[in-house]
Each structure stands twice: as structure tokens, then as C-alpha cells.
Design a protein that fits this description.
Elements: H1 20-32, H2 57-64, E1 72-73, H3 74-79, H4 88-93, H5 97-108, E2 124-126, E3 131-134, H6 137-140, E4 141-144, E5 147-150, H7 159-173, H8 179-183, H9 198-207, E6 241-242, E7 248-249, H10 266-285, H11 297-310, H12 312-315, E8 328-330, H13 331-334, H14 339-343, H15 346-353, E9 374-376, H16 398-402, E10 410-419, E11 424-429, H17 440-443, E12 447-448, H18 467-477
Antiparallel strand pairs: 1-3, 2-3, 4-5, 6-7, 8-9, 10-11, 10-12
Helix pairs in contact: 2-10, 11-18
């Protein structure tokens, strides 16, 4: 088994779900849900892949082939504005159909497909009949400060809000409800825009399958609802293991786990395996965008030296001879939010490790880690382009990562423009989430780090640096 450098920590178990509501939630869930550099910098950044070209077969499969039942149709999407609160609904009533679609894209965190003027969203497969089906880009395809980018974390995705408003629209139009409509009634799909309750999806869907993916009878799994920030897909080629705790080996079969809806039996996964070999190849080809703003070359070189002394042991080195250590840092040392580590039960990891997903016959096949003790420090390629930070998306800028005591408690993005000074999201702080705000989409823009699973604590390593060293490291991070 290939090793991950790590230390030890014990993890507290979480209490089992015991209410009728949770049992109902899991049943419905299983039936219903799925899932740079300027000329002043002396270094040589890796040129980004031409990701705005739809030429790779893996990209075409993700955007053109539906692997799940459809979520809604074009008529529903075009009528969803009638479920919006005032005054937004009145503005939409006066707009054209095309303008309303643009407003809906903005409200729900959808983007056009890069290099494609068809009007279809990157995040959904839209077929010739006008049915929309969620794809992997819903979470892993967003924008880099307003520029649509396949593989960027979708830090504006409003899945819960969109599902609620589409459900109301379906009721009004007399259309049938789907798995997302039902599942979101009892299991939150995401409490803050830009994050999703993804681990619960995986736990629930895998719970009712055997090792060969046949449907089985089983008691409902224990679940801990919590939100996660999607990692950028341009890290995929660097990381031999998947997920923030690194428990699962990277492989094409593992990419298929979130297709375990009841309509997809074992034969579908065998049928689609070659497709996901192409998807895997596509993900392995992705690279981050290059920073296009000014870089102080002298300051960045100083930052590179500080980074090498204080950060590289976990996050790796960069450039032609760069190496990534794939280091799992124990939770007692890291100190970041523990909920994600404890929410995925040991039995769930073991079940995955014994399944078809984890046994694809690779020459370097490794065992699944069923009892990880912390989180894997991610590579930092394109880190400037993947705000917010930490696995739960609780820290809005790199400056705040480097200044732990000044991280905002409650904050929300104010625009899609980058904060050029702090390198990350442009935000405003607040004393609390405005619960008297009538628009739920506005309330869900606010990130409250006091809520379960949303802590911005930990990663205090920058405390070792003085102010000048932090400025230098921040400048260097622009170049990765």
C-alpha cells in the first residue's frame, strides 16, 4: 500500500440518527437524490489547458450524456422566476425570456459553457427535448472571478434554493416531482451557497448496495449533515487519493459513485465504465489558470523561500521539479473543523473499500483508508483562483488564511470580482445572518462560521511568520 505521511489522532464517534424524520430522510434520499503570472515574475508557470474548448471526449461526455434521470425541463426553468420574491419577480416580469434566463443563472450560480454560445449551462446536460440533468460540473465547474471555468469549484452554486423554487414551479405547472425535489424536503442539499452536503449523498447511496452494486436491504445509515466546498479539478492529477481525508484511491470507477440512484443498476456501471475512463483522462489533463495581475517578482522570490521553509513540507514544491507529498495532517495538529472527518463512518469507508468502485484492477492498487486521522494538505496550484478556502469554504481570502485572528465570523461575497489586495473573494462582514431578510437566496449567501461544520478555526501555521514574511508568501501564492 502506498503510504500517506501522517501522524495520529483519535476521532470521537457521532451519535446515530434516531428520529423517524431521519429514517424518512434516508429512504427518500436513496430514492430521490444524487447526486498565473505577469511578465514581472521570473518563474515559468504551467500554461493552463485550453479548457474552453469542448474537444476532449471526457468533457463532451460530462456535458452531453445524462447518467442520471432528468431533474426538470426547459419550461420549468423558464417559469421559475414566478417563484421568486419581490421585487425580483416584478423585474423578471418586465424582462425578456433571455434576460430571465440570465437572471436565473446569476441567482443559482450557473454559468455558460466556456467557448459555447448555445446558452446551455456548464452544470447541466440539456438534451434535444429540453430536459435538464445535473452533471459533475454542478460542483466542479464554476467561474474564476466571473470567467466561466470548467474544473473550478462552483463557489456560487445555490442547489437548495434552486431546488425549492423549481419544486414550487412544478407544483404550479402540474409537473411531477423528482429525486432532488423530494430529498431536499428532509435533507439539506446545502445551507450556504457555494457548498453542498455531498458526503451524506455518498453515505446514503452506498449504504443500500453490496460490493457488486446490487441493491440490498439495510437499515438507514447514520448521517451528519454538513456543507463542503468542492475542490478544484485541476488538482486531480496531483493527488493519488480522493477527498479531503484521502481515504479513497484515485480511479475512474470512484468518479461514478454519485450515480447510484435506483434507476442505475450494476449493468449500467459496467456499460459506462469506458466513458469514465475518458472522464478520468480529461480530469488528469486539467491545469489551473495563470494569474493575470501584476506580481512583484522580488517579493515573490522572497515568499518562495519562506514557503519552502514553512509550508512545503505539507503543500509541496512547485515548478519543473516540484513534488507533492500527499501528507495527511492529524486533526489535533491542524485544528480545523472536525465534522467532515467524523461524519463519514468507518463502516461507510469499509463498504466503499470492498466495492466495485475501489477495485478497478489498476497496477498500483491500494487499500482504502478506513480510519484516517486528519485531512490531507492539498496542492496549491492555482490557489489564487479557488477561493474560498479550507475544506468547508469558511475562509474567503488567502490573506485571511495567513491571518487567523482576523478571519471574519459572518461574511458574504459582494461581487464576483477578486479582492486584489487579499487575493480571494470580495466580501462584507456582518454581525449575524439577517434572518429578517425575506429572500432566502440572500440569507444563504451569508457564511456563519459559528454553525456546525462551518468553523474557520485552525491552520495556525502562519503564526510562525512575521508581517513581512506573510506579505511575501501571499505574493508568491499568486504565481502557483
Amino acid at each position: 500500500m502506498a503510504t500517506i505521511n501522517r501522524q495520529r489522532i483519535s476521532c470521537d464517534p457521532f451519535a446515530p440518527a434516531s428520529s423517524v424524520l431521519i429514517v424518512l430522510a434516508i429512504v427518500l434520499l436513496v430514492l430521490a437524490i444524487v447526486l498565473g503570472s505577469s511578465a514581472t515574475w521570473a518563474g515559468e508557470p504551467t500554461p493552463p489547458i485550453a479548457q474552453d474548448s469542448p474537444d476532449h471526449p471526457g468533457y463532451r461526455l460530462l456535458t452531453e450524456r445524462a447518467y442520471l434521470p432528468p431533474d426538470f425541463d426547459q419550461e420549468t426553468f423558464d417559469a421559475v422566476w414566478q417563484s421568486w420574491p419581490e421585487p425580483l419577480r416584478s423585474r423578471a416580469a418586465e424582462a425578456s425570456t433571455e434576460q430571465r434566463r440570465e437572471m436565473a443563472f446569476e441567482r443559482y450560480g450557473l454559468t455558460p459553457r466556456p467557448g459555447d454560445d448555445s446558452g446551455r449551462p456548464l452544470q447541466y446536460v440539456v438534451d434535444a427535448e429540453g430536459t435538464w440533468t445535473m452533471n459533475c460540473f454542478s460542483c466542479h465547474g464554476g467561474s474564476v472571478y466571473g470567467r466561466p471555468w470548467a474544473g473550478a469549484p462552483n463557489n456560487r452554486f445555490a442547489l437548495q434554493t434552486m431546488t425549492e423554487e423549481l419544486r414550487r414551479t412544478k407544483f404550479r405547472l402540474g409537473k411531477p416531482l423528482t429525486r432532488m425535489d423530494l430529498g431536499s424536503l428532509v435533507i439539506p442539499l446545502g445551507t450556504t451557497h457555494g457548498t453542498t452536503n455531498a458526503v451524506v449523498f455518498g453515505v446514503a447511496l452506498m449504504n443500500y448496495r453490496d460490493g457488486q452494486l446490487n441493491v440490498i436491504d439495510a437499515p438507514p445509515p447514520r448521517v451528519v449533515n454538513h456543507d463542503l466546498d468542492a475542490p478544484p479539478w485541476w488538482h486531480f492529477h496531483r493527488r493519488p487519493y480522493l477527498y479531503i481525508d484521502g481515504f479513497a484511491q484515485r480511479g475512474h470507477r470512484g468518479l461514478m459513485q454519485f450515480m447510484l440512484v435506483k434507476e442505475n443498476g450494476p449493468e449500467k456501471f459496467r456499460q459506462w465504465e469506458d466513458d469514465f475512463r475518458q472522464v478520468y483522462d480529461y480530469l488528469m489533463s486539467l491545469r489551473p489558470p495563470a494569474y493575470e495581475g501584476p506580481v512583484d517578482a522580488s517579493l515573490a522570490r522572497r515568499g518562495e523561500a519562506v514557503f519552502a521553509d514553512h509550508c512545503a513540507r505539507c503543500h509541496g514544491t512547485y515548478g519543473p521539479d516540484g513534488e507533492y507529498p500527499n501528507r495527511r495532517v492529524p486533526l489535533y495538529e491542524l485544528g480545523t473543523d472536525p465534522v467532515r472527518l467524523r461524519a463519514l463512518p468507518r463502516e461507510g469507508r469499509r463498504r466503499y473499500g470492498n466495492s466495485w468502485f475501489a477495485h478497478a484492477g489498476e497496477a498500483d492498487q491500494h487499500e482504502t483508508e478506513v480510519d484516517p486521522d486528519g485531512y490531507v494538505a492539498p496542492p496549491l496550484d492555482g490557489v489564487w483562483a479557488s477561493a474560498p478556502y479550507f475544506h468547508n469554504g469558511s475562509v474567503p481570502t488567502l490573506w485571511h488564511v495567513l491571518h487567523p485572528d482576523q478571519r471574519p465570523t459572518v461574511w458574504r461575497p459582494t461581487s464576483q470580482e477578486m479582492d486584489q489586495q487579499k487575493i480571494g473573494l470580495s466580501i462584507e462582514s456582518a454581525a449575524r445572518v439577517p434572518l429578517d431578510e425575506p429572500d432566502v437566496a440572500v440569507r444563504r449567501q451569508f457564511f456563519d462560521t459559528r454553525r456546525k461544520g462551518k468553523s474557520n478555526a485552525g491552520h495556525r501555521y502562519p503564526d510562525e511568520l512575521d508581517a513581512a514574511e506573510k506579505r511575501a508568501v501571499l505574493e508568491y501564492l499568486k504565481t502557483l
